[in-house]
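Troubleshooting entry. Yesterday's outputs looked truncated, so today I'm pasting the complete records for two proteins to confirm everything comes through intact. If either block looks cut off, that's the bug. Protein one:
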Amino acid sequence: MTRPAKRAPLLLAMGLLPILAATACSAASPDTTAAAPAATSADQRPFTATEVSRFDQPWAMTFLPDGSLLVTEKRGKLQHLDLASGQKHEITGVPKVAYGGQGGFGDVILHPDFARNNVVYVSYAEEGTLDTRGAAVARATLALNADGSGALKDLKVIWRQTPKVSGQGHYGHRLAFGPDGKLWISSSERQKFDPAQDMSSNLGKIIRLDDDGSVPADNPFASQGGVAAQVWSLGHRNVLGIAFDANGKLWAQEMGPAGGDELNLIQRGANYGYPIVSNGDHYDGRPIPDHDTRPEFAAPKVTWNPVISPAGLMFYSGSLFPQWKGSAFIGGLSSTSLVRVAFDGENAREAERFNMGERIREVEQSPDGALWLLEDGSKARLLKLTPKA
């Protein structure tokens, strides 16, 4: 994924002070600037990577209760893969997507009660008027046939980025359900910088909704109404992974500008500072103040410079790799790597980096505890990682 050139941010001075006063902050972890370990070569990996299938520009995947797999392809296809037979079927009824740049079909996740209601959620880039676009999230019922084919039925859009803007970058639109049964959405700032600090916009925010798209009354900015009521945290750049750990804490990774990729512990009402602070700099070389210069902003728990270009985030809970239980895994795009992050309470550090030789778009865990990776781009491989004999 490219990191396009930036313009100088115009700070929303009049609206910013009340937001800062209302938001929580946290100190940087002492591990945040620790040196990353050297990437582990193929012969040193503790796992074997087996190719299972290939996809055209895949973006996300999720396992169904029967062990089969749903995979989104950026051009606008939803594929159902039967891992037992290797048969792949396209699911019909998907929404029309705005394909181009970083835009297209995005995430797919299951409702917490999927076994009963068959409801799935998808995210995608959507066309607007006058050459504008924005991310959208829809819910639908997945109707599968005996042969593995199927369709999305009764699809309904339940959330949109506001406003739609020009450009084809930084949609975010990663989805997760939390232990509270709420739907969480990463809404990136669409390469427009200032909306991340503007509460009249839901760009550059982490969003928390009920499963039908309504706004929970206990959201931190609910009393402000409008799109502000959707917001859980603000000051984010390009969030391409959100996941809950075993203790129910939400973590998010985001691409920084020139340097400064981040892993953040997401706190209620917190402001993470972008574009006012970042541990990276502008693409034209102009510096951005670091987080430690502005303690009122929540600081990342890990930063990367050189960057890893993070995509996909999950916490491992299986038994195939017992030494990794509780670790997080992040796919690396420009770093062509799989990154393992270890935790000590609310502190985090990069523990291992595995050189995969290709851009890694997505990471998931299957019910049997194997790790699964989706490469990025056309003819991208789906890889299953199992322990070496």
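Protein two, checking that the full record survives here as well:
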Amino acid sequence: MDLDVFVSAHRAEWDRLDALLRRRRRLNGAEADELVALYQRAATHLSLVRSSAPDPQLTGRLSQLVARARSAVTGTRRSSWRDVTRFLTQGFPAAVYRSRHWWVPTALVSTAIAVLLGWWIGAHPEVQSTIAAPAELRSLTRPGGEYETYYSSHPAASFAAQVWTNNAQAAAMCLVLGIFLGIPVLWILLQNMLNLGVGIGLMSSAGRLDTFLGLILPHGLLELTAVFVAAGTGLRLGWTLIDPGPRSRRTALAEEGRAALGMAIGLALVLFVSGAIEGFVTPSGLPTWARIGIGIAAELAFLTYVYVLGGRAARSGATGDVEEAERSATLPAAA
């Protein structure tokens, strides 16, 4: 595309749009219709310049012009409790539901790896000796040992806050680092499954696997699900970089990235619940069956939330992305 010819052909339209935007008086009906038409043309021009002849100065001018026109056409929009409700009932569950083909396999494979690692460590004393000295292993696994006292070593409120912060950071890293082809996400998953596998192996070798599961399951079901969702979403984001589908790579990454950002906020809320369970329920004096029951109930509530509410929202068109009026103007892509 000849940029000089393009600018000469459309400069008058841009100047007219700028003049309408600078009007201090209220536009009449004909001027308002003209403003909308010119805004749509300018948005198309911006997409053409970005894709065919990216010029920083022209792109900057058109971006500013289109943003001002969008604000004038759609009006100033303020966030409200309605946005929060829409996010919690549509955006977040729909985004998790749409990512299920990534995070469900991630959960199954990761859990299988943790179980196999646990079996391998528990069945081979020589492997256990490479983890720690025998005295240290006994200190970890004995009744009243470190595996048990870990959950009651700090006041419940501060412990829950610490757990929530650590898990939220891990989930955010999975979501953000997915852009690097998902490789850092696989490393984070491996570290988590390695820690879980070591606990399973050491406690099973000491004949106390039931105690370990009674401590892990109340909060671990929901906590690990949130981590798996974050990891699956990060892997999906990385794959989008490789295969954006019918969308342009920039558009695909923008859409999936915005959905991932919203998912980070939603998962922080989920991890807050699991952190509260870990801080207040796991170390409590409740019977083991009651503590595990609370963990199972929390997990089932989340899955129901995703598959029922999220499935309904996804089928109605929700994706977890921002509202269409708030997105950058783009040209349609051929299928």
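Both blocks look complete. Sanity check on protein two: Confidence is low (pLDDT under 50) at residues 324-335.
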